[in-house]
Amino acid sequence: MLALRLYRLLGQGLEPFIARKLCPSRRGELPRATLWLHAASVGEAGVAAAIIKALREKNPSLTILLTLQTETGLKKARELLGGEKIALAPLDCPGFVARAFENVRPQVLALIETELWPNLISSARKFGVKILLLNGRLSQKSLKRYLLFKNFWAGLLNHFEAIGVIGPKEAERFLKLGAPEEKIRILGNAKYDLLRERSQKISTGEIKALLDTGRLITFGSVRSGEEKQVVEATRLLLNTFPTLTVALVPRHLSLVKRLKRWLTSYGLPYALWSRKEKAPVIIVDEIGPLLSFYAASYAAFVGGSLIPKGGQNPLEPAAFKRPVIFGPHLTNFPYEAKALKERLGEEIVVRNAQEIFAQFSSFLRDEPKTKALGERAYAVFESFVGASKRYASLLSRFLIPPP
């Protein structure tokens, strides 16, 4: 295949110039393992961790290597899987990848989500290693880019023993890219097994200490472009429910200054979470506490969804039995949004401050109904749990036990 040959030649040409700047694992100096999993960054590290934990239940003595593309992913993987072999991945250059396979000598290479590295895949085939894709994801936007070189990617996907994907839309996209239909399996999203595990360990003590009434509404993962509607909804809520506390959790900390300006313009008193002070509005100015705020909440809004940003995960509040509302632009989580709308009603989709206010008001005025909605939301969350065991079973089929 000409495109692959050109790609390999480019990698070979780069190797002499970059080798000395790389850490050993980036050059392919990796430990021996029967199973090699490869993931991209933080989110994929969580998926890999869930699958590895499920696999450990079946085969506790299996030697596993997990490689990551980023330092942040490496750090997260080590937090989640302290006792496993974890390293930065070799760069996708022919010499580095070949050295990696000579050192690791795996039976199976399992790629997480969309880590389709041409040299890694072709070298695995050359070394007789079985290749699997786990928790496969492929957005419509990414598919359009991949289709520009369909024959190239179709050739690589034919080397896979199995392609496990999170849902039917992904299955359809991999088919369009040329993956053999008989190799595609819809197995769900393994990230929810880790979310359930995390949800059981969440502490809310610090947050509840700041609440006078115990009633907290959280606006989670607010994105730039949503802040005006969110603050307007906050004003309406506090005017009607003056003992309420509202938490604003921006997706990026760069939004904190703008939230401050909008709250000030509305005359709404606020405190920064980092200072642990009481106020009607708490701006969460740290990365990390979002799940704790969802757990402490009466109900929650999930952001990135009032504007076409794709949205954030609506099942995070649901994991704590909290009713959830979100905007119309939840394209990153189509299965989750559909399931929640079916169980909680179409009214959980809100388009502006007035609709956010109306929905939260309904929740606040009818606690028994709100509790029932939270239970339904949790049932939706539970229906998404269990994929990691299915991926572990798939892997086990291709791992030959030692004699």
From TrEMBL:
* One GO cellular component, as annotated: plasma membrane
Q: Where, by residue number, is the active site?
A: 44 (proton acceptor)
**Subcellular localization:** Cell membrane
Q: Which reaction does it catalyse?
A: lipid IVA (E. coli) + CMP-3-deoxy-beta-D-manno-octulosonate = alpha-Kdo-(2->6)-lipid IVA (E. coli) + CMP + H(+)
Q: Tell me the domain of life.
A: Bacteria
Where is the 3-deoxy-D-manno-octulosonic-acid transferase N-terminal domain positioned along the sequence? Answer: 31-193
The feature of type site (Transition state stabilizer) is located at 113, 191
**What pathway does this protein act in?**
Bacterial outer membrane biogenesis; LPS core biosynthesis
Q: Identify the EC number(s).
A: 2.4.99.12
One Pfam family named in its UniProt record? Glycos_transf_N
Keywords, sorted A to Z: Cell membrane, Lipopolysaccharide biosynthesis, Membrane, Transferase
Annotated GO biological process: lipid A biosynthetic process; lipopolysaccharide core region biosynthetic process
**DNA repair: present as a keyword of the record?**
no
Protein task: Involved in lipopolysaccharide (LPS) biosynthesis. Catalyzes the transfer of 3-deoxy-D-manno-octulosonate (Kdo) residue(s) from CMP-Kdo to lipid IV(A), the tetraacyldisaccharide-1,4'-bisphosphate precursor of lipid A.
Q: Which PANTHER family does UniProt cross-reference here?
A: 3-DEOXY-D-MANNO-OCTULOSONIC ACID TRANSFERASE, MITOCHONDRIAL-RELATED (PTHR42755:SF1), 3-DEOXY-MANNO-OCTULOSONATE CYTIDYLYLTRANSFERASE (PTHR42755)
Q: Which family does it belong to?
A: Belongs to the glycosyltransferase group 1 family.
Name of the protein described by the UniProt record: 3-deoxy-D-manno-octulosonic acid transferase
Give the species this sequence originates from: Thermodesulfatator atlanticus
